[in-house]
Design a protein that fits this description.
The structure is a homodimer. By secondary structure, chain A is of the alpha/beta class. Chain A contains 15 helices and 17 strands. The longest helix of chain A has 28 residues. The complex binds pyridoxal-5'-phosphate (2 copies). One pyridoxal-5'-phosphate binds next to helix 7 of chain A.
Amino acid sequence: MDTPLYQRLADHYRRAIRTGALAPAERMPSVRTLVRTHRVSLSTALQACRQLEDDGLIEARPRSGYFVRPLHRKAMLPASEPDPGRPLDPARYVGIHDRVSDFIAQCERHVTSVNLALAAASPAHYPAEALKQAMIRAVRAKPLMLVDRVPPLGHPELRGVLARRALELGMNLAPDEILVTHGCIEAVNLALRAVARPGDTIAVESPVYFGLLQILESLGMRALEIPTSPLQGLSVDALELALRTHPHLRAVVVVPNFQNPLGCVMPDAEKARLAALCERHQVALIEDDTYGMLCDDDRLRPAVKSWDHTGNVIHCASMHKTLAPGMRLGWMTAGRWQSRVAMLKFAQSRHNEPLAQVAVADYMGSKAYDRHLSRLRRQVKIQREQVAEAVARHFPPGTRLSMPEGGMLLWVELPGQRSSAQVFEQALAQGIRIAPGTMFSNSDRYNHFLRLSCGQTYTPQIADALRTLGSIVANAG
Amino acid sequence: MDTPLYQRLADHYRRAIRTGALAPAERMPSVRTLVRTHRVSLSTALQACRQLEDDGLIEARPRSGYFVRPLHRKAMLPASEPDPGRPLDPARYVGIHDRVSDFIAQCERHVTSVNLALAAASPAHYPAEALKQAMIRAVRAKPLMLVDRVPPLGHPELRGVLARRALELGMNLAPDEILVTHGCIEAVNLALRAVARPGDTIAVESPVYFGLLQILESLGMRALEIPTSPLQGLSVDALELALRTHPHLRAVVVVPNFQNPLGCVMPDAEKARLAALCERHQVALIEDDTYGMLCDDDRLRPAVKSWDHTGNVIHCASMHKTLAPGMRLGWMTAGRWQSRVAMLKFAQSRHNEPLAQVAVADYMGSKAYDRHLSRLRRQVKIQREQVAEAVARHFPPGTRLSMPEGGMLLWVELPGQRSSAQVFEQALAQGIRIAPGTMFSNSDRYNHFLRLSCGQTYTPQIADALRTLGSIVANAG
Ligand SMILES: Cc1ncc(COP(=O)(O)O)c(C=O)c1O
Ligand SMILES: Cc1ncc(COP(=O)(O)O)c(C=O)c1O
């Protein structure tokens, strides 16, 4: 064989990239590593890299080395934009409970081997060991917390840490303005109960997180779905129209950063417009920033709350996706409804037990938390690229996908109005769980969409599942 | 001095009983101990005891030795019985929030040195050390619980233990019928939301736990107060009348065992009648058994749920008062509303985080829990006797008091329509916090009552506070 050494080396890595062993966005082994691992000269290693770069397979980033480039997915179109002027569906009482029960019942009839429906990262991505140590420290230091009165609003240590961390999101909060809750879900419940009553109409994104539809249904409120762009988030233009035609709109709920299911982030200018618009119309703005910390690039997106000057924005957030899915901690700051929210929290579940709060405050106040966040962001970003790449390769032509810059979700638009309900059922029969688009709206508008989670460690099993899914979609009616 | 030795010994203990150093219901040192401590003969010790017995100061209990007898409090009349035929106040939207805020605001303006307003026992009465160990064991054994998905409805281990423990209360429940909640408060919220809507009317006891009034207010429901006996609890006759005049009554909430604030227990026959009556009228019966485990005599009172054959009773309970005030754990079983309640729980706060549940299951499944309960019951019983005795001694003649057989509360009826609001303010000025009767009703019917907690270790400071309180009451208008 007279293939030059550098080319054989390049081929070796070309195969790795093709099989996915080296995933898009992953770092190539450094030139030094190549030299050491393959016992080649520096110039051979450099030549191999340049060859891969010329082939468009990897790209150099200043001072960071080479990274694998996304391949197929760059060829996909982003998900379709909604028409912000489309006539709105009427505000409706939500009937999501039946859809979700049905979904769960169907899931339970099958053994699931790959769960792509879960909006959470693998347990391995979270700092269980450090949290365990923090719990042990906290309970050793103050065992009486287990049997003494619960501090009101949340433990002062945690509220202090949260107030400090909120600065990075552009919010200036006193610890006293923070209320600790049982997850973001409880926070959103309290926010809605504070500003609206049963029968009232609430504007939500479309598509929207089905958990929010469940909350609205359980509170007997109506949802008005506002067109939402896969790239720019809630259409403020469409909301403005809706406010004109629905003068009794009580509140708007928005997930401005890495929305579920779209993954979109609202541009700063739109966030500012949204805050001002709601203020002008005296409509409460409830912001759910569950995914805010999960940006790819360590550049935090500001909260809409940071444009709020009158207390019209209720900001809700969570430690669920970023730190500890098993601890059920969230928090909120409720602006001008703060005392009403505190009253409702007390009447609904009393204040949160302190132990977990102290442990989490300890961890969140440390540098280890920042290191964990960077790691988690990198990990989720790579996994998102991997899932997207697999979709691009295995799903039929015409599949569309917008690439979020954070979060752990991908919103896939199937070509030719294929039914995601059908795809869901067929996938389930093969042990693969996905979230069909129908779960993200009161309407059937998203029937040809599906949501894939990128939170799980990307295993060969997941790679296989995505290939299988691709052929199910290709053959679906 | 020729006072015989046995008489000097008797005088010594007579003084101790008078000062309260030896409290009512407390055990006298055994005859052997007297022999050893005072270096007297067995016959001298026996003679001294017989003398105290003849004086009515102590009483012998078979195989347990001598106990200090209650003195003054036996002379007090029980609190007045309500007239079960009195015309009901109209069902009303609750306005308790203002009263409670006002109460809290007033409390916050004063330094409190003795808190008799708190319906909880001293932290020292709870097994903090054992719970700490159980927490550490649980987090060491399964640190992934902190970062993994939360098991639905509650952790299976805890639900198993609760189902076994429920047998003692006469309930036969499968673990699957149990839902773990954030305290009894969340359970009662979910129960009310499951069976009723805003605007609906709910029958409650009168006087009633103000926490329940807060819940009703926060849910926009109306309260209909049903006369309740300080001895026998909710008047089923009065409820029957109310059901005739209020055909749209949606639910009844009852605290059948050691009611807050009365401390009363419904007789079994009344519990059975209540269950049957609600069933017949198709009105949901919500039972709050927060204090059920706190019986003086280790004889558990059956839950009303044990008379339920059709799923019409929702049973709610808590580990707050009996095990761990700082852990915020409660549970419920919702009969025919079970799946609706599970849906509401999921939409309201998701299911409870597992770690604390595993630790509590570990402890509640052990013999140590039974030992703790016996200790706590004995302790609280003695403290209740001590507080009652102090009330009997220091409050003006005409003060009335029913003696509960469990729980940690005393409901004191002041003579001559004295205002408990005034007593509250004057006590507060002296650093003593009590709960005025006005907080236990929508009406002003209980303005001349106050609730005293007996949960705290009976210190000389508390003894002093009760003396002070007595003179405040004596001088009140
Ligand atoms: C937008 C959004 N909000 C809230 C939640 C849940 O929040 P938590 O688990 O903190 O209650 C989720 C989880 O899926 C979510 O996607
Ligand atoms: C009758 C009654 N129910 C419920 C509660 C509170 O229950 P938890 O702390 O378990 O939410 C109390 C506490 O004061 C109470 O007295």
